[in-house]
Structures are given as structure tokens and as C-alpha cells.
Write a structure and sequence with these properties.
Elements lengths: L4 H7 L11 H10 L1 E4 L3 E8 L6 E6 L7 H18 L1 H10 L2 E8 L6 H25 L1
Parallel strand pairs: 3-4
Antiparallel strand pairs: 1-2, 2-4
Helix pairs in contact: 3-5, 4-5
Length: about 140
Amino acid sequence: MSGDPSSLIDSGRLPAWHVLRGKTAFQQLFQHGQVIPARLVTMRYLKLPDRPLDKRVGFIAGRKIGKAAQRNKVKRFMREAYRTNKDQLAELLKQKQFGLHFVFIARNASASYQGYLKDCTYLMRKLQQTLLDQTLKE
């Protein structure tokens, strides 16, 4: 794979600039963010009105999920489920001019990809609706 950014878009990979990184970013998210729960996955998000178009996502699978191979598998499931649903938020963020940091946190490792896909789709729809409701109140 080449270093050309267009090849990343064509391959369906999540670009590096789109991934939430850094201790302070995660600390802010956990201290000031809001939670949306689901059966297998919990989402925590933080709306950033001062940083328009800054959308970053993270994926967490703690040690209670299992050993490293199982945690990596669960994170791959969540990444793919997000990748297939990420367009739901793109238009909303462009229209409303605010940034968003959010993280998917695995709660259970005993499910298949379909279970994670279902929960991540639900969480993305719920986040979209919550953000729309918040912007209408402002």
C-alpha cells in the first residue's frame, strides 16, 4: 500500500488523522463527555463547538474482554461497524459546524460481528438524534 491519501480512501481504511489519540483527549472525553449505552458497546462522546469539522473516533476493549487477541478482534469488529456507518454523522457535522470526539467501549466479547454491527449502528443513530436535539435547543 502506498502513502498516497487517496489510496486509503479507496481501500476503506480509517485514516490516521481520524483516530482519537493522546492522553489529554481521552481524559477530556471521559471527564466531560456524555454516555450512550447499548448491550455490547457503550459510546462516550464530546461535542466540540470551538473546533468545527474535527471528528475523531477511538475504540477501547479493556482487559475484562479477554486476552490481547480477543480484545484486538473486538476492536476490529467495532472499527468495521463504525466504518460502514460513519457517513451518518458526516453530513450533520458539516451542516452544524462543530467537532466531535467519541469512543466506542466494548462491554462484552461473546458476540459475533453482527452483534457489534447492530449495536454500533444503533449508537450512531442515537448520537445523530441526540446531536440534532441539542442543536435545536441552542
